[in-house]
Design goal:
By secondary structure, this protein is of the alpha+beta class. Helices cover about 30% and strands about 35% of the residues. A hairpin with a 2-residue loop joins β12 and β13. The longest helix has 21 residues. InterPro entries: Dimeric_a/b-barrel, NTF2-like_dom_sf, SnoaL-like.
């Protein structure tokens, strides 16, 4: 009798175990991706991100776990596991209105933010992961979801689970039909090592073949917690220096080399002494600076800034670094103007930084445009460089599109005015933004500096800002370094 009871008990436990396996507790995975504003400090953001997790997200009802990271293109990804969809929504609603996270949220480029939530049945176990792959996608129209789920489930045992450094694979879907697959690795190196093998594996080909390729969003990121020795970038130093006009903070002055500071603003004396003399002549209340865009290209940082500098000014600044210190500075300033015929100001427009892997290609496009069209007047090549269907213009006097560009050229010709580019001195870029610095003549032939900022998409210029300023007579220079 006793043996029968034991057998019955074991049988009951087995049935219960099977039922538990079949009815795993569903939770919610929230996937959010975004880029930072170009004026944001990655070091500061990473610090705030850890604080947000500790003081805000982890305190919300239904919170399970949070992981954040950044990929090689500068895209941030945040994964948060919640007990329910209601918990996830409640947390986001509170986040959007909580003043304690306002500083963190203000550093995010809103136009790049994307968020999806997925129902999952897998319990997170990959606590030692430092590198994560997240792929979201839709299946092809007409795909048998049961067949897809079977293939999806087989990817782990047939391939991923056999790989060195693999920790866990989590999958899920939502009511919109969007799918997610998250793979956790111990290191990036082990993830990188299997990419080609995965793409050639039969199960991967079957899995990928059921996806709508146009919907795939693949993110591979290093966890912020695993990043070591993150330091203040040169761009961060420039933004801090410009913002010090507003805050009065003296720390950023230490980012300038005290023994070597070559000044190309011809109204300011050379060296730190010249910078100090300029500050002494500031009006009551001091100078003000609103950094709109900032970029880094090797040892150079260039920024577009709205100044209150003896009146409202639109400006571009360029700083060159050596050994982490600023050693040279160029700029071009112009009074702030009214919106142009298309209603654009000298500062508005796109700010999101993308296409970091296309920096050199985009710089080559801008160089070609300046040399072929503006220096050598090969107007038949304009459409090879500027998108004929989308060209947003921020020059105060010129309207959008190639028509606006052509109308401006016609006006100058009919009124005996010139806009001549004689020399291209510098081309700097980061991702989809490129700045060119040129010398020429403008208006009635005045010696002029042209600073042109371009935004590119798919290899063509789609947006343009500029500052065109007269170069003062040499007798008025306060340094001998020249404008360029």
């Amino acid at each position: 009798m006793k043996s029968k009871l034991i057998a019955l008990s074991l049988f009951t436990m087995a049935i219960a175990s099977c039922n538990t396996e079949d009815k795993k507790i569903e939770t919610v995975l929230e996937v959010t991706s975004f880029n930072l504003k170009t004026t944001a400090s990655e070091l500061e953001f990473n610090t705030l991100d850890a604080e947000i997790e500790e003081t805000f997200t982890s305190k919300q009802p239904g919170y399970i776990r949070r992981q954040s990271g950044v990929d090689e293109q500068g895209k941030y990804v945040v994964l948060v596991y919640w007990k329910s969809l209601a918990d996830a929504k409640a947390s986001m609603d509170k986040f959007m209105n909580d003043k304690s996270v306002a500083g963190y949220a203000s550093m995010i480029e809103g136009s790049t933010m994307k968020m999806s939530r997925f129902t999952i049945k897998d319990k997170f176990k990959a606590t030692n992961s430092t590198f994560t792959e997240v792929m979201t996608f839709n299946t092809k129209e007409g795909t048998d979801i049961k067949a897809f789920n079977k293939v999806n489930k087989s990817v782990g045992p047939k391939f991923t689970e056999k790989q060195k450094g693999f920790l866990q694979r989590i999958t899920g879907s939502n009511d919109s039909g969007e799918q997610v697959a998250v793979v956790y690795w111990d290191t990036k190196a082990n993830s990188d090592a299997v990419i080609n093998d995965f793409m050639n594996a039969p199960v991967a080909k079957e899995f990928m073949g059921m996806m709508d390729q146009s919907t795939i969003d693949m993110m591979r990121f290093q966890s912020l917690a695993s990043l070591k020795n993150v330091t203040l970038s040169n761009k961060d130093k420039v933004v801090a220096l410009l913002n010090s006009f507003n805050t009065g903070d003296q720390t950023p002055i230490s980012y300038i080399n005290p023994n070597k500071y070559i000044q190309h603003n011809l109204g300011v004396a050379d060296g730190l002494q010249g910078f100090g003399e300029l500050m002494q002549h500031a009006p009551e209340g001091g100078f003000k600076a609103n950094v709109v865009r900032a970029f880094q290209d090797g040892d150079y940082v260039f920024a577009q800034t709205e100044y209150d500098f003896f009146g409202p000014k639109a400006a571009f600044d360029i700083f060159r670094f050596e050994d982490g210190l600023i050693v040279e500075h160029w700029d071009n300033l112009l009074e702030v103007q009214k919106p142009n015929p298309s209603g654009h100001t000298q500062f508005d427009g796109a700010t999101a930084l993308t296409d970091l892997d296309k920096t050199e290609a985009n710089k080559a496009v801008v160089r070609g445009f300046i040399e072929d069209v503006l220096l050598n007047h090969q107007m038949d090549k304009v459409a090879s460089y500027i998108n004929p269907k989308e060209y947003v213009q921020h020059n105060p006097a010129v309207a959008d599109g190639l028509e606006g560009f052509g109308a401006a050229m016609k006006y100058f010709a009919e009124n005996g005015l010139v806009m001549e580019y004689d020399n291209l001195h510098m081309v700097l870029g980061q991702g989809n933004f490129v700045l060119s610095v040129s010398e020429g003549k403008f208006g009635k032939g005045d010696h002029t500096a042209y600073y042109d900022l371009f935004r590119l998409e798919n290899g063509l210029i789609v947006e343009h800002w500029d500052v065109i300023a007269t170069i003062p007579a040499k007798s008025d220079w306060k340094n001998t370094n020249g404008k360029f």
